[in-house]
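Thread title: Can someone regenerate the structure for this chain?

I was given the following input by a collaborator and told the matching C-alpha cells would be attached. They weren't. Posting the sequence so someone can regenerate them.
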Amino acid sequence: MTEDMYIEIREMINTVGDTATYLAQLQEADYGNVIESWTQNLVIIIENVNSLILDSNKVTFCDPEYLASHFMEYRYQRDLMNQYMQWHDRMLEVLERQYYSQNIWERKFVRLMDYVHYVDKELIIEKAKNSLLGIDRAVIQKLCAYYQEYAGFWGTLDVDHQRYDVIINRVETLIEHRDEFLWLHDLLADQRSKMVLTGMLYNWVTFDFDYIKTIKEANYTDYFDLDLVECDEREVWVDLGAWIGDSTQNYINTYGKYQRIYCYEIDESSMEEMKKNLGRYSNIVYCNKGAGAENCKKYFVKSADTSSNRIVDRPTEKEVEIVRLDDDIQEKVTMIKMDIEGSEQKALAGCIRHIQEESPKLLICVYHNNEDIYRIPQMIMEMNPRYRLYLRSNGMQWGPAEIVLLAIPI
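Best answer:
Regenerated them for you:
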C-alpha cells in the first residue's frame, strides 16, 4: 500500500466518522431534511473502503443494507450513528495494520486474517467458489480428481455435483483458528517461512497456483535446507514413512555421514524395494511397522500410489504393528522425519521423551489435513519450547502439498 493510497483511504474513513458525529447532533425536526443525501453518500464510502482493504463491500460489524433501509426514521438515529462510529474505529485499525506491515507478504497475511475475521463466512465461501470456477475447465477437472482421491485429508471437491467440502472446511478452519495462525506467523523464524504460510493459505481461498509456484523451494532438496539443517557423523536419523528409501538416500547424498538410520515403513513391498535400494549402506535398521501415540495393532490401506499408504482403525485384510518411538528406539535420536499420511500428530505424541530430553531436529509434513499446519507446531512447543520453527514447501501438486515444518533446536 502506497502512502498516497493510505492517506486517501484514511480520509474516506474519517469522512464517515466526522459525518456521523454531525448527524448524531441533529434534532428530530432537522433530521429528515438532511439524512437521506448524507446516508447514501456514507454507504457508498463504506462499501468502497471495505472493498479496498478487505476485498468485500460488506463486513460483519456494519451492514450497509441495514443502514440504507433504516436511515429515514429518527428513532434509529443512535443505532445508526453507533454503527458508523464502530465501523470508523475498526477500519482505522485494519488500515493501520496493513499500512505498517513490514513487507508485501506480511501485508498479505494481515489482510487475509482481517478478511476472515470481519467478512461473513458465506461470502468468503462464495468468493472462493467463484475463484475456482473462474479457472480453466480442464484444470478444474484435475483439481476435482486430486481432491476426490485424497478426500480423507481435506474433504470432497466435485463441481459437477456442487460438492465444495474442501472450500467450506478450509474457510471454517481459517475463521475458527485465526488466533492460531496469527500465533504461528509471529513464531516462524524467517521471512521465507512466513511466505510459505501466507501462500498456502491464499491458495486455499483463491486456487491461484502462482502462490504455490512462488513458495516452492528452489535451492535445496526436500527436508534438507542446508541453511538450517546441519548433520555430522553422530547423526541418528529416523525416517518415518521411509517408502522405498528415497528420503534416506537423499540424506546420504546430501550429508554422507551418520551413526545410524532407522527406516519405518508399513508396506512390506515398499520395504523390500527399500532394502534393495539401500543395501550397500551399513548401520540401517529396517522397521516394518508404523509410529503412533501407543503400542498397538492397526490396519493398513494400500493406495494406488504406494507413497500414500495409510493406517486406519477399521479392520482391513492387513494388520500392522504400531509403536511409540520412545519405546522402540532406546538410543539418543538426533533427527526425525515424518511423512506418514496424516498420522504425524499421533507419531509426535509417541516421541515426547526423545523431544523433551534430546531435542532432535524435526522435519515433519504438515499438509495432510487442515489442522496440522498449526497444531503440530503447538505440540512441539508444548513438549519443548527450545526450538526455532521454519516452513518450507517442496510440492507442485494440485493443492499446497509437501509443506514441511522444520523444528531446529536452539
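The two ends are 36 Å apart (CA to CA).
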